[in-house]
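Lab notebook page, bench 4
Experiment: in silico fold of construct C2
Operator: M.H.
Input chain length: 141 residues
Purpose: comparison with the prior construct
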Amino acid sequence: MKRAVLLGMCCALFGACGEEGAVGMDAGVEDAGWPMGSVELNISMGEDPCPVATATVTMNAGDPSRPVPSIGPLPLNVRDGVIQGTTFIDVYASQAWWVQVHAYDSNGVNVCWGQDPFMTVYEGRVTRVDIEVGCLWPHCP
């Protein structure tokens, strides 16, 4: 009986992990009655980017009339040193989200950074945010 329960739990966990990439990353947990939207994150690394191994995104809402929980830091995919964009679903509708992207080298040093301090998420809509990531000197060659 214990083996069957354990096997069922493992299958459920592995199955849930496999769904994430198909529809985007679940940034928040939908609350009953709170309006939700989505965020399409597009990242440009500019000219002569630093070598990037990992990256994260953090989102903080700055609307004091509608305080909502912060999101992240969440990992972003990095392919061949380039940070990949993604779509976050179930983001609280709010004004003045501050979106920050941090990129790290293979030693964990923050080598690049970019932001959008004024993003607004609208209920039931996809908000596009474009962030240009710049290198942080003196960490880059």
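Observations: The radius of gyration is 17 Å. The domain at 25-135 is CATH 2.60.40.3540 (Immunoglobulin-like).
Next step: discuss at group meeting.
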